[in-house]
Structure formats: structure tokens, C-alpha cells
Design a protein that fits this description.
Helix content: 10-25%
Shape: elongated
Strand order of the largest sheet: 1-2
Order of helices and strands: HHEEEE
Structural class: alpha+beta
Distance between the termini: 27 Å
Strand content: 15-25%
Radius of gyration: 15 Å
Number of domains: 1
């Protein structure tokens, strides 16, 4: 069984995601308001979220046909 996510936990997925009240547990809508975050599952917008159900931004590198490198986040 997982733990309910805190703002500090979200900061481990994306540095600086939250800057205050780091022991507070954010709701789904607060988490998804952070650029690049997604919550999997059927949580209501005002519900707390389990750590394992948060998908943070993932940096990927795409190499184009001409060899150009494009860095993006998904």
C-alpha cells in the first residue's frame, strides 16, 4: 500500500513544483495544475492522491531524421 503524496514528494518529481507548506497534501487539481503532471486513476478534483498515481514530467530526447536533437518533456 502506498502513501498519500505531499508537496515535498511532488518536488522530488519536479524541483520547485511547490514552494510552501511542503508537508501539506495537495489535491488532484493542485497536482495537475503543475505543468507536466498527470494523475492516473479516478480521483475527484478535490481528492488527495497516492504517490504511485502521480506521473511527473519525463525528459526525452528525440533525434530527427536529419540528426537534429530535439529535447522535450512528456
Amino acid at each position: 500500500m502506498g502513501k498519500i503524496a505531499t508537496r515535498a514528494f511532488c518536488n522530488t518529481l519536479k524541483a520547485g513544483a511547490f514552494s510552501s507548506e511542503l508537508t501539506r497534501c495537495p489535491t488532484r487539481s493542485e497536482i495537475e495544475a503543475i505543468s507536466g503532471f498527470f494523475v492516473k486513476g479516478t480521483y475527484a478534483n478535490n481528492q488527495l492522491v497516492m504517490e504511485g498515481d502521480i506521473i511527473g514530467p519525463v525528459a526525452i530526447i528525440v533525434v530527427g531524421a536529419s540528426g537534429n536533437i530535439i529535447k522535450t518533456q512528456v
